[in-house]
Amino acid sequence: MSERARRRWNKFGPLLVGICIGLLVVAVARARAMSAFLVPTSSMSPTINPGDRVLVQSEPGRLPERGEIWVFQMPPSAMAAPGCVAIKRVMGLPGETIEVREGKVWINDQAIEEAPGVVAPTYAFGPLELGADEYFMLGDNRNLSNDSHVWGPVRAGALMGRATGCYWPMSRVSGF
């Protein structure tokens, strides 16, 4: 490679590599029915911070599992603007009885183990028995989260997709 070509590569090579990687991410995301979501609040801190961008995978027919992080349309009881979406952790599954007491989340009268970094709740809630198509969603920043302990369960039809990881900012890239 000539000196001129080497200088040109050093100047434009990283940009070209970045563009190629970006196009590859977009192609993979489209092929896997993924979309991007900008997190606006601290309700999921420290797991997800305001300004983080996460990938959300739509998997029609797949039901949430406890502990997963999902994006969903806010229920009417939240009195949010139409089409407003939220991101929270799935805590209660259809048919379960959920309660928050003693700084813990209880499912069917058994305290559950929380994900690392989850802030222990200082409030009490329930007990509430979830319906056949209802999920109880809580933010990881339990005491500062507007979530199911405030506006009730989320219906299965409102679920949009599972958050699979943070892709921006670069310092916070991780999977969930």
Walk me through this protein's architecture:
Strand 5 (97-101) and strand 6 (104-107) form a beta hairpin. Strands 1, 2, 3, 4, 9, 10, 11 and 12 form an eight-stranded antiparallel β-sheet that branches. Strands 7-6-5-8 form a four-stranded antiparallel β-sheet, with no helix packed on it. With 176 residues, the chain is α+β, with helices and mostly antiparallel strands. The protein starts with a helix and ends with a strand. The chain has helices spanning 3-31, 148-151; strands at 34-38, 53-57, 69-73, 85-92, 97-101, 104-107, 110-111, 125-129, 134-138, 154-155, 159-168, 174-175.
Q: Could you list some keywords that capture this structure?
A:
33% strand; single chain; four-stranded antiparallel sheet; alpha+beta; 2 helices
Concise structural overview:
With 176 residues, this protein is of the alpha+beta class. It has helices spanning 3-31, 148-151, and strands at residues 34-38, 53-57, 69-73, 85-92, 97-101, 104-107, 110-111, 125-129, 134-138, 154-155, 159-168, 174-175. 19% of the residues lie in helices and 33% in strands.
